[in-house]
Design goal:
This protein is 68% helix and 0% strand. The chain has 177 residues and is mainly α.
Length: 177
């Protein structure tokens, strides 16, 4: 485990970015397995409360996957790797990786109550748009897809930060201020 909060946040950021690119560039089961391996590395080297953080990551991964599954069913997003009732497994891996950032490299977003409502509707859809430009997903109608994603992120991201703050406050003590 790394003692320096700054180094933990940096490693968390690097693990997330590496996992995001891996999953988006090579969408499939193997990238999902790699995402799980990166989450495990995070829990070993970054997290000071791995069991609690794993609970938070699992909760957020389920919620995020349900939201993405809704987008696929409503034709907000499409993917050649999604043929079931659930979001593609590689996208679920990205959710797990993303959840690790909420108590580390993205914890600063939760310090201002208004900030998640401003950043999420921009950053969330931008990530999906970027994934679409790299071929991992398609956004069939940008005039519908981007506003829907923005609304979803404007609700879900602040909600996840609230859950972290309310029920997993012990994770915040390890964040550099």
């Amino acid at each position: 485990m790394i003692r320096s909060a700054g180094l933990r946040n940096l490693l968390n950021f690097v693990l997330f970015q590496a996992g995001w690119f891996l999953c988006v560039l090579f969408p499939g089961v193997l990238s999902a397995v790699a995402a799980v391996a990166l989450v495990l590395l995070h829990l070993v080297f970054v997290s000071q409360r791995p069991v609690r953080e794993l609970q938070f990551v699992l909760l957020g991964t389920v919620v995020g996957s349900l939201i993405d599954s809704l987008w696929f069913h409503l034709d907000i997003m499409n993917s050649s790797t999604s043929t079931s009732l659930w979001a593609p497994v590689w996208l679920i891996g990205i959710w797990a990786l993303f959840m690790t950032t909420l108590a580390h490299s993205l914890a600063w977003v939760g310090r201002r109550i208004w900030l998640p409502f401003v950043l999420a509707p921009i950053a969330g859809p931008f990530a999906y748009w970027s994934a679409s430009r790299l071929g991992a997903v398609s956004l069939p109608d940008l005039t519908l897809s981007l506003p829907a994603l923005a609304l979803g992120w404007m609700i879900s991201f602040p909600l996840m930060l609230h859950v972290r703050r309310r029920y997993f406050a012990d994770l915040l003590s390890e964040v550099a201020t």
